């Protein structure tokens, strides 16, 4: 009895070239899994160094810090980081009246600043100490400059106010210079009438007088004849009109030498040079560089001629 012939079994002829069907992965539903992906997968820290897909290299910490320190009030640091909207807002508010600028600078110095893509700034660890030191020095210098500027400004304002309210300079007292010249023999409490021109008469009074070696607020002037004679005079127009002026007066020492008149500004209380109507009075100080001793005071009329004379003699 003959037996039928059977083809060889595949498992017995593994090397006979018959393809082997791979077993489908468990749970895949009979389909093959996808092969390895070729797309870039960023690793830790890739964003900081400008990995593809992250908008180029990260912004520099040094640049951001310098812009924040020097131009933070203009929002330049935020423009640099790509934050255009908040940069414009910071610019329009002058750095949030300075507060926003300080906050942004501190955020940058503490390493918490980020660019528009949310990436940390490059170069922070190696430069943070230097940035902190320079910032503190700049702040301290700015504080000192601000204090000095304030003091100088207040001093200038005080000087301007004082200059605008300078009182009539005090005539020297006996404790400063002695003896003082005393008014000579004039009537009506050291007053006398002077005709300065036809129909124009003036009442002149020597209110006070004194001798000193230094004029208040004019210490730079040095007397050529030993000292300065200061006279406070009153000029009152009685009839008509007249012109009051320090040049209406001249002085001569006991030897007949004419004293040099010293110009005083009106702010120092000098006798004003202006027209005086009837019944009006002008009062001020006139000064002369003249030797101490008996002094002749001459009042001239409108033509420059001597109209009256009074003698001041030293007190006994």
Task: Please provide a written account of the structure.
This protein is of the alpha+beta class. It is built from seven helices and eleven strands. It has helices at residues 61-71, 76-80, 84-92, 94-97, 99-109, 124-164, 187-190; strands spanning 181-182, 191-197, 200-212, 228-239, 242-244, 249-252, 260-262, 274-276, 281-289, 295-300, 306-314. The strands form three sheets. Strands 2-3-4-9-7 form a five-stranded antiparallel sheet. It has a four-stranded antiparallel sheet with strand order 1-11-10-6, with no helix packed on it. α1 (61-71) runs antiparallel to α5 (99-109) and α1 packs parallel to α6 (124-164). The protein starts with 60 loop residues before the first helix and ends with a strand. Mean pLDDT is 76; it is low at 9-16, 26-53 and 172-187.
